Amino acid sequence: MKKEEMKEAILKAKYDKGLKWDSLAEAAGLSPEFTCSACLGMNHLEKKSADAVATLLDLGEDVSIALQKYPLKTWSQVVPTDPVIYRWYEIVGVYGETIKEIISDKFGDGIMSAIDFSMNIEKQEDPNGDRVVVTLNGKFLPYKSW
Amino acid sequence: MKKEEMKEAILKAKYDKGLKWDSLAEAAGLSPEFTCSACLGMNHLEKKSADAVATLLDLGEDVSIALQKYPLKTWSQVVPTDPVIYRWYEIVGVYGETIKEIISDKFGDGIMSAIDFSMNIEKQEDPNGDRVVVTLNGKFLPYKSW
Amino acid sequence: MKKEEMKEAILKAKYDKGLKWDSLAEAAGLSPEFTCSACLGMNHLEKKSADAVATLLDLGEDVSIALQKYPLKTWSQVVPTDPVIYRWYEIVGVYGETIKEIISDKFGDGIMSAIDFSMNIEKQEDPNGDRVVVTLNGKFLPYKSW
Amino acid sequence: MKKEEMKEAILKAKYDKGLKWDSLAEAAGLSPEFTCSACLGMNHLEKKSADAVATLLDLGEDVSIALQKYPLKTWSQVVPTDPVIYRWYEIVGVYGETIKEIISDKFGDGIMSAIDFSMNIEKQEDPNGDRVVVTLNGKFLPYKSW
Amino acid sequence: MKKEEMKEAILKAKYDKGLKWDSLAEAAGLSPEFTCSACLGMNHLEKKSADAVATLLDLGEDVSIALQKYPLKTWSQVVPTDPVIYRWYEIVGVYGETIKEIISDKFGDGIMSAIDFSMNIEKQEDPNGDRVVVTLNGKFLPYKSW
Amino acid sequence: MKKEEMKEAILKAKYDKGLKWDSLAEAAGLSPEFTCSACLGMNHLEKKSADAVATLLDLGEDVSIALQKYPLKTWSQVVPTDPVIYRWYEIVGVYGETIKEIISDKFGDGIMSAIDFSMNIEKQEDPNGDRVVVTLNGKFLPYKSW
Amino acid sequence: MKKEEMKEAILKAKYDKGLKWDSLAEAAGLSPEFTCSACLGMNHLEKKSADAVATLLDLGEDVSIALQKYPLKTWSQVVPTDPVIYRWYEIVGVYGETIKEIISDKFGDGIMSAIDFSMNIEKQEDPNGDRVVVTLNGKFLPYKSW
Amino acid sequence: MKKEEMKEAILKAKYDKGLKWDSLAEAAGLSPEFTCSACLGMNHLEKKSADAVATLLDLGEDVSIALQKYPLKTWSQVVPTDPVIYRWYEIVGVYGETIKEIISDKFGDGIMSAIDFSMNIEKQEDPNGDRVVVTLNGKFLPYKSW
Amino acid sequence: MKKEEMKEAILKAKYDKGLKWDSLAEAAGLSPEFTCSACLGMNHLEKKSADAVATLLDLGEDVSIALQKYPLKTWSQVVPTDPVIYRWYEIVGVYGETIKEIISDKFGDGIMSAIDFSMNIEKQEDPNGDRVVVTLNGKFLPYKSW
Amino acid sequence: MKKEEMKEAILKAKYDKGLKWDSLAEAAGLSPEFTCSACLGMNHLEKKSADAVATLLDLGEDVSIALQKYPLKTWSQVVPTDPVIYRWYEIVGVYGETIKEIISDKFGDGIMSAIDFSMNIEKQEDPNGDRVVVTLNGKFLPYKSW
């Protein structure tokens, strides 16, 4: 079973059962963000977590195996079009250099890792309209000379 | 004075004076992230903040005026190449659909605004290597039917 | 059933029955523009509206369910080629900066939302050739400093 | 004087004098939207209007002549990046096919002209946040067989 | 039946019967150029013409219906590669500004319509090698101020 | 003098003198279309024609020499944006395969040359709106086997 | 049978029979280069040649018919990636202007035809490593004024 | 002196003196094709050849030095537009796979080098129109396993 | 069997049997890197190696034959997205000119071959985190004049 | 002084003095590869190294300061064209997935860092033609779940 088929099977089962990512994450023993990214084919799960997710969704072993495989991370839209995702692309365009400047100021020359990395998404209730609060946490990797 | 010239003048003066964005932000009465983005030409400042930044840097009124103008936000690289900025593009590619899924679960169909938005970048000290912690806070905007 | 299959099924049934978007909209209790966009897979409908549309078209529950799912909004042509749609792309190219200038003048620095948004298309009869009158209504979102 | 230089000169003079597009339009005897588009180099003005705009801004005859020349309408960003303009690109992507469908329903096979065309932008005050209301009016051009 | 399938069916039947576009055009009561473009899926035919074409080719009603539907005009190659079509792209690149200049001289500021438009292709016999003579006839649409 | 500077000088002189391409063509002893294309830098003129054009415009020998040089034909917009030129790009997209089909029918497998080629643009007066009539004449070049 | 299927069938049969392009060319009565290009779908063969190729490969009449059809020449990679083909793209990039200059010197302003054209590929044995010798022969087409 | 300036200086001097590439090549003691490519900035010359070329053109030592520097070979048009150069791009598109097939047949798996490479362009007189004959000679490089 | 199917079959069998590339390489009598690249469809194997790989994986002769065919090397992402592969693209962007400079210094004007080439990937254990050590070995090919 | 100007100044001085990167590296106390990359504007040097490089080249303090600034790493060619650099792009295309597979086998799921990274380029003398041996050494970064 390919990752793409796995993703479709999981999304369909999740919808049919009326589950949220929180439930799948609880089964996997991981955060909802990471669990979701693995179910979408962008990360892999260890066997125990993969089995738990597949079981919760009444899906077979082939789904669990597909979840355990290391993914080839690809996307086809150089500029994403979905408005949710585009807004993030826009943030990178508008604030990318700002991020680089602030990191340079605080850490020196280097990058924020997208591999040694975690992400958390929360709902912040607000009478003027609820807010999405996303926290990204990535290891600072300094450029090294040699 | 064009925004591009303003940006160069500010970066040069900041470097020559050995200042950090924190100092400019304090002068502007705003966060370092927003102040920096305005100095890079991606946001505008109100007159009082603009004057304070220009004064701190010993730059003229033309810099202050340029800071007050509404910017046309453009970038030329469809896929950014600087490693700091690319990693964020990669995060959007790898985790974009995850972000959409989690927001859908928690809020329903809608987006996280990139306009009614703030960003905070902190250094988290860690014996295994310091970490960059970025918090993005954007208003949830539900799709409306009509 | 995927959105793409749903779209094909709806367009075929609409054609075979000789219905117009007005009729589908009436069934859905929404405007023709929004109803059409949902049937094309670019918005979702609430259950009641989705059921009404499916029923009117003698289509099954799978169509109604597909209409209720939150869409991933994607398009594959960076520059659209169909002449109807290209003309709008051209309007954005020719008048985009004008729109920004007039909004800046009237509202200050900010954008017109494409999310908190509605659109109405009318036929204006004219002896020199009928005219298409489109009204777009989007919430003004001011840039905020922080 | 090239259109690009004309545009810069006009924007600078407008800013320095604290004028709005309404004032320039009144001088030109045209709408603010059309006047603005001509000042940005995307349309031309007749001599009388061009002279009036140049006079109001205390700019020379070369600006008036540049305003009268027929423009070559070009833009360099295939996908616009400024958030105001991108939102319109997004509307074309999300609602382009909807526009085509509704026009087909109401008029038959044909397009809405972007040449025999006018645009009006208004501010609609609203306690929940003011709204931008844009009305586009384009002649319907039917496809003809031969 | 989709336009793409209709196109394949028509091209196959035309080849098997050894017919030329002239014959299909005669059946349709239209020019060969327009008839051909409709059979390739880039225009629609009225019922009478569509039925006549389908009958001549011994194809079913589904082909006739497909011919009557309004097409979504799309092409996938931004720069066409087939040498026949590329030469036209090249003509647009080499002579596009010339066309604009001559039209401006003769008509004023405006465009030649690609909608209110016809095209005729003739063979001109020539002892030095026959020549292709193509006549394009499009309505002049003046830019209007408002 | 580069072709680009030559083009600007000619366009300015032509505008200042209020001349039309017809007059330049008469001086050159060529058609307005070819003369214009050479003045825009997309063809070269023989010395006699080049001198005549430069003389008519009161421009120096450097303009004549620039007109005589063989051009490197380049354009920077893969998809042209000016509406006059785009409509031709659209015609190539919509009718390119039609042109190939009709040529195949009438001539066999081969192309219409864009080199051994001429173009004529006329104004056709019409009470319903004047029309632009463009005639393209290119040698048929058959594919050869070997 | 589509050209793409024809190509696959021919390549498979050629491989299974252990034939070289020389043999197919001998059957076709043409050069290996042209015969190969037709079998890959980039040229057409006359009936006699097409039948001979199909017979040699024990393939049916549908292959012969597919070989006889005029191809639509398309390729999907704007920059080819296969190293053999890329090296030619590189030659065009590195030596394209050189080719233009030398042709201009020897022939005047004009092009080398890619239609009235032949190509021959030979193996030149060399103790320092064999060499590929390719001869391209294209008719010179002078630009004409009119 | 940059390569680009060197190229302009050489082309201007060559034009003013009415020289052909043959003469420059004779001075350099190399072929016209290689000499031309070096003068266009796509190869370098040894000191002796560079001095000879500069002397013949009455250009200074800076031109000779620029000719001797190793070039960074770049071109900006992914798809070339000049008709001479485009025809070669088209040959690569149409015949690229043919070249690969014939080389595979005659040599086995490998490429024709674009580095250990020479090119010769000749004029073949022909009563039906002169022909350009180009011979490319590149070392065969076999893929190696390891 | 196409290369793409071969690749899928091999990857599946390798996963199911829990084998590593080292084992396949040992069977093939080649390095793991080359063997892997052939199994992914980017190189071909000689019959003996191909048979050995197929046998080890309990796959049929069609897999062996597919491994022996000369591949057309294509990839669809102009900028790769998978983080492992992107980092290499980034290295080429950041250090490409450095590589050219150092090679020029040490060898003169020429390139490092990607055909007469081998690659070795090793794991270097390190208490601060293991390291990937990749050695690329390519023949220097000097540019030649002619 | 901008990085681009610094690069030009350094390359010119290095050429005029006939120095190699080895000498600059010795002055900087770093490897030739890193020193070169910093001089090309793709890395920064510490003050001591920057001063030493500037002194060796008889360049001023502005060059040293420019060398010390953190660079914004950008490149403009999505696909590089210089043959030296393209061959590396090709290696990424041909062997990118192989690299990913071998790393997965030896380390598990993760990447090879391009930041915690070093590169060494050596000349390997060989009677069949000298070889370029490049060693890349990057830290393995495992994907982490959270």
UniProtKB/TrEMBL annotation, chains A, B, C, D, E, F, G, H, I, J:
SUPFAM superfamilies: Cyanase C-terminal domain (SSF55234), lambda repressor-like DNA-binding domains (SSF47413). GO terms for molecular function: cyanate hydratase activity; DNA binding. Residues 74-146 form the Cyanate lyase C-terminal domain. Keywords: Lyase. Its EC number is 4.2.1.104. Catalyzes the reaction of cyanate with bicarbonate to produce ammonia and carbon dioxide. Belongs to the cyanase family. This is Cyanate hydratase. It comes from Thiohalophilus thiocyanatoxydans. The lineage of its organism: Bacteria, Pseudomonadati, Pseudomonadota, Gammaproteobacteria, Thiohalomonadales.
